[in-house]
Amino acid sequence: MIALEAIHKQFGDIEVLRGVSVRVPERSVTALIGPSGSGKSTLLRCVNLLELPQAGSVTVGANSLEFGAGTRHSRAEILAMRRSTGMVFQNFQLFPHLTVEENVMEGLVTVLRWPRDQARAHARALLDKVGMAAKAEAWPANLSGGQQQRTAIARALAPSPQVLLCDEPTSALDPELAGEVVEVLAQLAREGTTMLMATHDLRLASSIASDVVFLDRGEVVEAGPAQSLFGAPQRERTKQFVASLS
Ligand code: ADP
Ligand code: MG
């Protein structure tokens, strides 16, 4: 469902991604682990094209774009790719001036031009799914971090993206609130949502990811089934990093 091939990304002189390839099969979850600064967020941002790679190819479902010297893509192509993905951020990034329900409706109404009633009904159903229906009229500032993140997950799912990208979705939460977010993501995984998620949360990664990619200094050091990568890492750098996770 997601295929990243030989992705290169540099900011000025700094090469942040040095030929990264990752594949996420449909209806499966891949965890992206690695030290801070290894390029995890940048790689996720290359999937939804918030960052454009200098080289490589990005495929999400039927959308596929090649990057390299001389390639240019139309705004329509970039938007189509972006719309095939939903993104959940570490710090939730809800719109503070909109209620929970309005946050989930926003993209449907303003971008996809859905009628408000239809958008509201869809938002309600998604809020129900993430256990936030009772808080539909609440303001983000009055929610716990876990509630804000569950709302952000509902918002990311609203346009029915083909894949969900999560950038450290539990790392701003204390363990109890992280647990409720892990529960929601685990439920989505069981329902067959395709996900690529950067995380330092061993509980999150080991409970829902079938595959793990270990990124270090912009390169894939090791990738494989979660059980073997966590249980019997092959490379020394992987062993050290996995041992450092709690
Ligand atoms: P991670 O998410 O694994 O911590 P990031 O993808 O955020 O890593 O960052 C990888 C490297 O890229 C870091 O050295 C970071 O400083 C650099 N970087 C990320 N975004 C930018 C940017 N917009 N401009 C310049 N450097 C950036
Ligand atoms: Mg990051």
TrEMBL record:
Gene3D superfamilies: P-loop containing nucleotide triphosphate hydrolases. One of its GO terms (molecular function) is ATP hydrolysis activity. It is found in: Cell membrane. Keywords: ATP-binding, Cell membrane, Membrane, Nucleotide-binding, Transport. PROSITE patterns: ABC_TRANSPORTER_2. It is a peripheral membrane protein. The keyword DNA damage does not apply. Residues 2-242 form the ABC transporter domain. InterPro entries: AAA+_ATPase (IPR003593), ABC_ATPase_HisP-typ (IPR030679), ABC_transporter-like_ATP-bd (IPR003439), MetN_ABC_transporter-like (IPR050086), P-loop_NTPase (IPR027417). GO terms for cellular component: plasma membrane. Its main location: membrane. Belongs to the ABC transporter superfamily. This is ATP-binding protein. It comes from Devosia insulae DS-56.
